[in-house]
């Protein structure tokens, strides 16, 4: 099974709808504030769009989606297809490697905006055995940002993930945390907003803290992937006028208020 999908993944996503609903609501609220100038969307790696709001997809006239998972097209159609058809949104779903196909897709859709949907956080798991994950991910991100320069685009991706004791039923789910991409990541050392999840043990660095250009407005989102395994997501939308691609330092990500060790192994749920 590919680590980015498969029937097991879709089964788990379907079963986890209630558990994931707070994060889905946060993503929907963020996207409601995103006003793309284009009516065409390139949707990269969305799987079935389990956490994507159909309402946001309806604002486009046409959508081209691509995912390496051969089952994703069917489940995407099951989740979103009927509403898209009623609204007259033309959509096409291809099976393939979204990042390998990115140059071709951008050339074929020069006016489309781009959303990378929970894709970049998986890059490190596709590192060839002979290469270091940090080097591989950094090179991949650099090439992706080069290709997207001048394009309107956004991303939802993992920053960190790891074991947590979870929320007692009387506690509220952590709200979205506002941030701005800067050269130094010092402002990200405050993770009090996520402390209600009681992070503990070893956490995995997904090596994605260099995704957005300086000045991009960001939101950090908590995601209870399972009751005792949480993810720290980041979302952001890049306008062409934001400026040049300047990487965000990842050094401060390694100093957290909860104990973790960066590991190169795959996540236990994959």
Short description:
The protein folds into 2 domains: 1-118, Rossmann fold, CATH 3.40.50; 158-270, no CATH class.
CATH architecture annotation of the largest domain: 3-Layer(aba) Sandwich
Query: Structural class of the secondary structure composition?
Result: alpha/beta
How would you sum up the major sheet?
9 strands, mixed
Unreliable spans: 242-270
From the alpha-carbon coordinates, what is the Rg to the nearest angstrom?
18 Å
Secondary-structure element series: HHEHEHEHEHEEEEE
Q: Please provide the count of β strands.
A: 9
Strand content: 15-25%
- Shape designation: globular
Q: Assign the CATH class of the largest domain.
A: Alpha Beta
Number of helices: 6
CATH fold-level topology of the largest domain: Rossmann fold
Description of the structure:
This protein is α/β, with parallel strands linked by helices and 270 residues long. The chain has 2 domains: 1-118, Rossmann fold, CATH 3.40.50; 158-270, no CATH class. It has helices at 7-15, 17-32, 54-57, 72-87, 102-108, 133-148; strands at 40-44, 62-67, 90-95, 113-117, 153-163, 177-180, 204-205, 217-226, 229-238. Strands 1, 2, 3, 4, 5, 6, 7, 8 and 9 form a 9-stranded mixed beta sheet that branches. Helix 4 (72-87) links the parallel strand 2 and strand 3. The longest helix has 16 residues, at 17-32. It is globular, with a radius of gyration of 18 Å.
């Amino acid at each position: 099974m590919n680590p980015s999908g498969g029937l097991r993944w879709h089964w788990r996503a379907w079963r986890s709808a209630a558990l994931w609903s707070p994060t889905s609501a946060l993503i929907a609220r963020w996207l409601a504030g995103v006003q793309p100038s284009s009516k065409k969307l390139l949707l990269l790696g969305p799987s079935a769009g389990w956490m994507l709001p159909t309402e946001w997809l309806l604002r486009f006239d046409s959508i081209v989606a691509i995912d390496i998972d051969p089952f994703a097209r069917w489940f995407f159609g099951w989740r979103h297809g009927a509403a898209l058809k009623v609204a007259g949104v033309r959509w096409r779903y291809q099976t393939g490697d979204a990042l390998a196909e990115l140059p071709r897709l951008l050339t074929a859709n020069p006016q489309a905006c781009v959303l990378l949907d929970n894709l970049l956080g998986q890059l490190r798991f596709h590192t060839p055995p002979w290469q270091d994950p940090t080097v591989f991910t950094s090179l991949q991100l650099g090439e992706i940002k080069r290709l997207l320069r001048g394009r309107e685009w956004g991303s939802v991706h993992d920053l960190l993930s790891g074991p947590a004791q979870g929320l007692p039923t009387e506690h509220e789910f952590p709200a979205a945390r506002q941030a701005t991409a800067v050269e130094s990541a010092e402002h990200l050392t405050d993770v009090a907003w996520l402390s209600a999840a009681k992070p503990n043990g070893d956490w995995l660095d997904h090596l994605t803290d260099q995704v957005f250009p300086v000045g991009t407005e960001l939101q950090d989102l908590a995601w209870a992937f399972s009751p005792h395994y949480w993810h720290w997501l980041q979302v952001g939308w890049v306008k062409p006028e934001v400026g040049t691609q300047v990487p965000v330092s990842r050094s401060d990500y390694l100093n957290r208020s909860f104990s973790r060790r960066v590991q190169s192994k795959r996540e236990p749920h994959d």
